[in-house]
Amino acid sequence: MNGFQQSQRLLSLPPYIFSEINNIKAEAQKRGVDLLSLAIGDPDQPTPEPIIRELQKASAEPLNHAYSPYEGTLSFRTEVAKWFQGRFGVQLNPENEVLALIGSKEGIAHFPLAFVNPGDKCLYPSPGYPIFSTAIQLAGGIPIPLPHRWENQFQPDLNELETLLLIHQPKYILVNFPCNPTSATCSREVMTEMVALARKHRTILVSDNAYSEMYFDKKDKPLSLLEIPGAKEVAIEFHSLSKTFNMTGWRIAFAVGNPELIAGLLRVKTNIDSGPLLAVQKASEFALANAEPLIEPIRKLYFERREIVLNEMNRMGIETFYPKATFFVWAKVPGKELSMDFAKRLIANQGLVVTPGIGFGKEGEGFFRLALTVPTAQLKEAMIRLEKALKS
After folding, report:
1. Phi, psi of 50 (to 5 degrees)
2. Which one of 3.40.640.10, 1.20.1250.20, 3.30.565.10, 3.30.360.10 gives the CATH number of domain 49-291?
3. pTM exceeds 0.85, yes or no
4. Each residue's pLDDT tens digit, 117-129
5. CATH architecture for residues 8-46+293-391
6. pLDDT tens digits for 142-172?
7. CB neighbours (10 Å) of residue 272?
8. Residue 50 burial (C-beta neighbours within 10 Å; 0-12, 13-18, 19+)
């Protein structure tokens, strides 16, 4: 039996960039090409051993094999609040201002189901993680790109933002700093103005802060949107343990912020999924309580890899956006080649896989993204292949 038609909401979605890249990779592998991929931001290093031991201990407890409360355990949410206070100086009530998630992607995808009605408009960053716009579409909303450009350090132009607010009256504005794909961080001044605009226009602020701990200078740590006075009146922020502790497959994250926004997201969760695995929550409590000694070696490794890539690309004459955070390097495509054509050529000629900027939105055209999530030896090999491709 065949001929089943997918829903219009699915058919209206643009192609997912990583699926396209996977198809190109598969074709190259059929031809016997030796692939080296810097396209996916999935840490190559294991989860720190102390966290694994905590998971093993918690998994041995029969009580941890039951359903989790939808909102997560109170002990996990309390540990989140303690960590947040220590890291950002923001007090949270674990009872109603913290929500456990099965990954921040889950929370970001479910949030518009709680607050977006069909036809509502929402602003999202471009270039930006593709789920930002597709989540809005799947909820029946209309995604409106908020351009982030090189000349503004990939922060929004505040005059342009206010114009979009006046024209579209969006239900929410989504911000992502440190940013995937650009690695851009946001100044306190710009964040303060965004909060003021959101309050003025009665618009929700949604902050994806999954990379807050992937920074390279302790004197210039990324901010939480909730540090800004008045932000909690209008904002919800998503955090993840995935990148911070090399725990991408564990599917554990949390949302914090305005109690009404948290309650709406929780109501969606109670109708769609469950809380994270109890044993994972217990291990994550340990991770948050011991965050700095666990994260510092991870940061150090990415710093070393970042320096290799920046030095080599600078030597080749490739212009890069200097990454203060994340494990991504965002660079200009040499010459006038389109980003997808450049990515295809790298795969065909050298078996090197990068992510074309166009996959992150119109403003991503002319750029490509590298992930620092491969062993150092492979990263050096990737730079050799990149230089060969530029000379061919």
Report:
1. -60, -35
2. 3.40.640.10
3. yes
4. 999 999 999 999 9
5. Alpha-Beta Complex (3.90)
6. 999 999 999 999 999 999 999 999 999 999 9
7. 12
8. middle
